[in-house]
């Protein structure tokens, strides 16, 4: 809750630093496609041996023939300890705790606490994300300063703290018995770190408001992935709101303004990176939804995914020699160190607020809060970093958020209707 006031108090320093045009790259090695290939090669050096080991243990029927001190570890990683649950209405969401004998004032205070926590965590995270990726550090009158370039290190910082927080939470609280094979988390982990990398890298080429609107439009690829991965079907209003979101985003992207700030110029690289973010993130959510058919809590999911995220990112950074280089940059610029740490804290705290809010008030209330957060994030970014938005672009933003609220309303109506269905009838699955 206290992160946002600290950021607002430091707004003069947040906007400082000379912005470097995205077209100016120090070398071909700084080009995003090269970095993506190098990172992917680093992940492959861990994934391929792991895949071969899993196939080896399965072919040897290790579950029945194995023994020794390594048997429990290999069993947990490759085979798991429980079968999937036979029925699960909505495995992606934790069981909601209905308030019992709780006063209205207490519920209102709890809701305000959740809303404030989510807004402070993710608004601060957005402001810091744009500061780190688009501004220089150590700039003086004679020295333009230097820019931090390694998005993968920021992903690693976020994941290591999230892994620590989730691990401590699981150790200190009672959790369901874990039964999923650990290696299955690696798929969601790999797509998650790639989506996060694309998200950070895209800010070198596009504005933060553009990125926020593109993230709002990921409803469309999520629906497509849902059809491919989970064989889901959708209602007509879901296709309607997806179309409205597409129209609103197109209006914003195609709008033009005179004397636009250099950071608001949308480049082809930025569009490709945003598309990569949306595709990877859509796969992550659908794969996690499938994993929830095993009996687990959301915090266990958070822990399992971040275990592999830390392994992949630290392995790739060490292979490239980028970990030491990033630590040196951090040592040279204490301001960057503070920003990177606070960025990770906001990311980890935000995830915990997500779980708590959904658990207390349900997914509809959470979605409304996060939709408002996206609108506030665009406004805050324009105020701090001077992004220009035209009238057509503003109308596009309004169309997007109108479609998002319409989606929340229609979903809540469908949920109420599904509760009234006679036994044996099942409602259409929704994302």
UniProtKB/TrEMBL annotation:
Q: Which InterPro entries match?
A: EmrE-like (IPR037185), SCL35B1-4/HUT1 (IPR013657)
Keywords on record: Membrane, Signal, Transmembrane, Transmembrane helix, Transport
Gene Ontology molecular function:
3'-phosphoadenosine 5'-phosphosulfate transmembrane transporter activity
Q: Where are the transmembrane segments?
A: 33-57, 236-255, 261-280, 301-324, 336-356, 363-386, 392-410
Membrane-protein topology = Multi-pass membrane protein
Q: Does the keyword Transcription apply?
A: no
Q: Name one Pfam family in it.
A: UAA
Location in the cell reads: Membrane
Give the CC-aspect GO terms.
endoplasmic reticulum membrane; Golgi membrane
Entry keyword annotation includes Membrane? yes
Broad class of the protein's primary localization: membrane
Q: Which residues form the signal peptide?
A: 1-17
In the record, the note on similarity to other proteins reads: Belongs to the nucleotide-sugar transporter family. SLC35B subfamily.
What PANTHER family does the record point to?
Answer: ADENOSINE 3'-PHOSPHO 5'-PHOSPHOSULFATE TRANSPORTER 1, SOLUTE CARRIER FAMILY 35 MEMBER B
The protein's name is Adenosine 3'-phospho 5'-phosphosulfate transporter 1
Q: Organism classification, top ranks?
A: Eukaryota, Metazoa, Chordata, Craniata, Vertebrata
